[in-house]
Amino acid sequence: MKKCVCIISGGMDSITMLHDLHKQDFDIYALSFNYGQKHCKELLYASENCKMLNILHKVINMREIGNELLSGSSLTSNIEMPEGNYDEENMKLTVVPNRNMIMLSLAIGYAISIEAGSVYYGAHSGDHAIYPDCRPAFLKALQKTALLCDWSKVKVKAPYLNLNKISILKRGLKIGVDYSKTWTCYNGREKACGKCGACQERLEAFRLNKITDPIQYDTI
User: Fold this and answer.
1) Which candidate, 202, 173, 174, 177, places its Cα nearest to that of 187?
2) pLDDT score at 203
3) Nearest alpha carbon to residue 31 among 10, 54, 13, 2
4) Would you say 6 and 28 are in contact if contact means Cβ atoms under 8 Å apart?
5) For the chain, how far is it from start to end, CA to CA, in angstroms?
6) DSSP labels for the chain?
7) What is the pLDDT of residues 151-196, one digit of tens each?
8) 118 has which bridge partners?
9) Residue 17 to residues 143, 156, 157: CA-CA distances in angstroms?
10) CA–CA gap between residue 26 and residue 5 (Å, rounded)
11) CATH class name, domain 2-208
12) Are 53 and 25 in contact (CB under 8 A)?
């Protein structure tokens, strides 16, 4: 079996990737991060999916680091959560400083220690507008660094990098992903808000795939 580290948040992109790799018979070591975000509801869904697939899942506690160093984002600081589409300027408030670089660096170290050949993360084309660490140029530079940082040749992969959420959802539905077991909303309420950029993008993906989102929303 192909051994890999898979970073999952509990959102629909990374959970689709998790199931996708499982279908391809990868030997998966799942990794999630508590980095000081305002809520950790999505991590419960990450754990639930791993239990369902019998995948080892580690949740790394980075709250102290996040609270001390990764401020200035509406996901981690006392800043009002912006609403609207991802392509709107105010959505840059959801950027957590250097988040993916930190997580991927730890994941690469984990992969080296367990002799896994690759690290996967769920960046996709819908993130390119506001998240620099989800762009092809970042992945290319990080891969070069990963090959230089150790004798082990760990590959960093983002299989959905050139896909949008609509295409990711289509793929997930084809392989039988249960999207009621995912959480996308930036707010940690009982129901998804339906107004933040994450909710808006998710709802659009379901609408264009002509299927009803199985989770509940406050505004729908």
Assistant:
1) 202
2) 95
3) 10
4) yes
5) 43
6) -EEEEEE--SSHHHHHHHHHHHHTTEEEEEEEEE-S-S--HHHHHHHHHHHHHT-EEEEEE-HHHHHHH--SSTTTSS-PPPBS-TTSGGGGGGPPTTHHHHHHHHHHHHHHHTT-SEEE----GGGTTT-GGGSHHHHHHHHHHHHHSSSS-PEEE-TTTT--HHHHHHHHHHTT--GGG----SS-SSSB-S-BHHHHHHHHHHHHTT---SS-BS--
7) 999 999 999 999 999 999 999 999 999 999 999 988 878 899 898 8
8) 4, 155
9) 19, 14, 11
10) 10
11) alpha beta
12) no
User: With contact defined as beta carbons under 8 Å apart, do 62 and 35 qualify?
Assistant: yes
Closest CA to 158 of 140, 172, 144: 140
Cα gap 208→166, rounded to integer Å: 7
Distance (Å, whole) CA 32 – CA 5: 10
Instruction: Give the Cα separation of 36 and 128 in Å (integer).
Output: 23
CA torsion angle 146 143 36 219 (round to 10): -160
For CA atoms 65, 70, 71, 77, give the dihedral sign.
negative
Tokens 């991802």 appear where?
Answer: 86
Q: CA 91 to CA 8: how far, in whole Å?
A: 22
Which pTM was predicted? Answer: 0.90
Is the CA virtual torsion 74, 91, 103, 149 positive or negative? negative
> Where along the chain do its domains lie?
2-208
